Amino acid sequence: MTKIKIVNTQTGEEIERDMTAAELAQLAADQQAQADRQAAEAAKATAKAALLAKLGIDEDEAKLLLS
Amino acid sequence: MATTTPNYGWSVPTSTDLVKDGATAIETLGDSVDATVKALNPETTLGDIAYRSSTANTNTRLAIGTSGQVLSVSAGVPAWSTPSSGSMTLLSTTSLTGSSVTLSSISQSYRDLRLEIKDPTFSTNNSSIRLRVNGDTGANYTMFNAVSQVGIANAYYGIQGQTSFDVTREYDMQNTSVDAAIMYNFFDYKDTTSIRLGNSIAAYQKGYSTAGDRILGSAQLYYTNVGTTISSITILMSAGTFSTGTAYLYGVN
Questions:
Q1: What is the DSSP string of B189-204?
Q2: Minimum-distance CB partner of A30 among B106, B107, B236
Q3: Is residue B209 within 8 Å of B191, Cβ to Cβ?
Q4: Which residue from B32, B37, B38, B85 could staple onto B10, CB 3.0 to 4.6 Å apart?
Q5: How far is B125 from chain A (nearest CA, A)?
Q6: Tens digits of per-residue pLDDT, B214-249?
Q7: CB contact under 8 A, B102 and A9
Q8: How many angstroms separate the CA of residue B213 from the nearest CA in chain A?
């Protein structure tokens, strides 16, 4: 099971337990959001690289062209 | 017939008083003057000062303070006090484990919070450490990250409306030989009338020359949810679990 740890910073009490169903659902949502964003960024980088390849220039040269 | 002075009410003989009563009159006047001067000058020791009391023509003695103290006001009267200076108080030291660690019941006795995470490592590559406050899973987290890496172009990420702060991005900190440190600051965390601002610095290195071996990231943080103080902070993994790492939470004044 996936563990969660909760520390009371005033008393020092620590509770380590399995995540509840709601917490697991939130964790899955967080991870999916991160995966989606990584995929979007990767797709963007791939498209950019493909465009530069078609133009036959690298990123620094593209910056020079636009400057 | 004796009269009295207008300011201090001393009994003063008049020109028509009898000479035979002169010595007594002078004694009475002298005693009155002495009592008044003493009441206005209650100091007894080197460095003492006096201030006006609630009784007319009677001052109160304030004994000299101690070295480093400054004159301030307490309950409406002067008082010596030790000036408060900036300080940090360690509120908790917590080992990172599992998928998330929540630092709860954060004291509301400070102005700012600082969270330091030392040497975190993960079970899963390409993970990142995220922060969530008060268990708030709403889209209330905005950040702007700037990242510098060895051999890789600088990167800038502006991210609006996230459900947690992501300040380390996908830094690969799984390798146990990695040196890593992250520091977060939350300013005026008790303010319930305004947005909360923060910043962070994250760095890791697992080598010294290979591209991506050394990463330095800096993020500006903006928690948009207004109306509640920050009373808990959850440190969570974007994927996998913490293998190592320690979180230090400080209250800052």
A1: TT-SSS-EEEEEEEEE
A2: B236
A3: no
A4: B32
A5: 13
A6: 778 888 888 988 888 999 999 998 888 888 899 999
A7: no
A8: 20
Count of CA atoms in the C-beta half-sphere (13 A) of B218: 3
Q: Give residue limits of the domains in chain B.
A: 3-81, 88-252
**Residue B24 main-chain phi, psi, to 5 deg:** -65, -40
Residues of B in contact with A5 (CB under 8 A): 94, 97-98, 100-102
What is the number of structural domains in chain A? 1
Q: Please state which architecture CATH assigns to domain B88-252.
A: Sandwich (2.60)
Nearest CA in chain B to A31: B238
Our CA angle for B186, B192, B197, nearest 5°, is 25
Q: What pairing do the DSSP bridges indicate for beta strands B49-52 and B59-62?
A: antiparallel
pLDDT digits over B23-75, tens only?
998 999 999 999 999 999 999 999 999 999 999 999 999 999 999 899 999 99
**Burial class, B45, CB count within 10 angstroms (exposed 0-12 / middle 13-18 / buried 19+):** exposed
Assess: ipTM above 0.85. no
CB-CB contact of B10 with B25 (8 Å): no
Q: Look up the domain containing A54 and give its range.
A: 3-66
Cβ separation of B163 and A59 shorter than 8 Å?
no
